[in-house]
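Can't attach files on this board, so I'm pasting raw text. These are the components:
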Amino acid sequence: MASDGNDDLGFKHHSLMNTNNPLCDKVDGMALSSMYNTKSSNSSDPFFGSGWDPIVSLNQSESLGGGSSMVSHSGFANSHYPLLMENQGICGTSHFSQYQSDPSFVELVPKIQGFGCGNLSEMVGPMSLPHCTQGYAMNHEGGIERASTNSTQSRDDRQISEEGVVGASPNRKCRKRVHEANQNADEELKKDPSGESCDVQKEHDSKKQKTEQNATANSRGKQVVKQAKDSSQTGEAPKENYIHVRARRGQATNSHSLAERVRREKISERMKLLQELVPGCNKITGKAVMLDEIINYVQSLQQQVEFLSMKLATVNPELNIDLERILSKEILHSRGGNAAVVGFNPGINLSHPFSSGIFPGTISGIPNTNPQFPPFPPQVG
Amino acid sequence: MLKLYMLVFCKQVGMESYERKRTYPMKSSKVIHSTTFTTKYVSYLVPALTNIGSLLASYDVDEETKKMVRYEVDMALALSAKGFAWSRALKHKLRLNYNDDDRVGDGHGEPVTKKPKTEHEEEERMMCLRKLIPGGKEMMADDEMLLSELGSYVSCLELQVNILRSMLQNN
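---
Top answer:
Structure tokens for the assembled complex are below.
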């Protein structure tokens, strides 16, 4: 029965993934795993499945290579489903092999929890909370105290604020302890105490190795996510319209540094989008060089406009403009298959060197010839 | 039904997180369609150029003509990409220049000469970018706004170049 449910679940996920394929690739593998994790055996699947959609569809830019990991996740979900509920901190493919091979799920649970990624689980927290509570309850009963602060140790700024989870959680007796732990951690906004508490629990469970990994994950998580390629290490929540910031372990937690971090994250996101816009900048890492490239590109574009307008002036009287022809030319030559970012797509390729870049926040409206992904829903925020 | 849940999800997440001020929503950006831009641009520019052509009694292309053409080119850009800070600034600048002196010049009022690159300071580069983009100087405080404006500006510039080039090719 459980296995049946698992199979159904896995199958559902497969079909779900397939339908959202172009977007799926951009969903972080971690997100998928978390999705599996928090899914409960209650018939909330359609609910949850839909909950997954916005995560996918709100994803911006990052092609986080969720494709391959999706398959592994589904297999993973199938075999470990009953216990996945309890693991909101699963992230990173490195642990999957462990799960699949280890028959003793219960022991694995605390390990997984410690892993700092519970991004997606937090993300869908408000929705899937009733199920999470069951997971919590199970954990609690099992004598494994699972502070949700584990998830706060996760690396990244793209988590949903845990307060969302806390706020939406129904009052359940079993979860009170965890709930309070959540609140305490949240209010303090401190990583160290929570980390310590987690560590203590870990020691109690004698899963020390995980704490070490935790710490390293945290320290790694601290690094700038500019290229967002840490997904292999710590997993990464799919990007949303929000940049969620949590104080990570060992970081200052006053509002200034948090805001600063948010600002930096936003800037790096924009830089990434610009990187896709400017041709030949894919390999450039580093803000300064990137800015240089952008400056050069803008200058060259402006020079071209200058030159062309001069030419236009000389040619002016004989102008024979055909609007439809220009438009059709552009559409025919427009480049398909743009980058993953939702954005502004010039889509023109009149045998010129410019690449069709995409600017965030806009939807390409070119019909027909452009095999682009469907427009994103209006962004929340 | 899925959509309903999705909306609820978004709302709930958004509201809750935002209330607690732990999340910082990204600014929602404008939607630009390249076809829309192209249509607007061409439909503005072509009549304007025709006007210029008809205004000139003799077809001697002098500085004045070039400036007028340049003005129209810039104005077409500003009008075709509404809703951005740089387009507003560009429009403003164009109108100012046109009214004040007879020189229309480029609405950008810059180009070409900026070569910063004394490396190490990213600030310098940001300053450069600010000078490049119309209205950039008004974005002194806001780096991220600058970068997003830059994105749309670059896209529109590309479109503009393509359009101009195709217009010239047609002849």
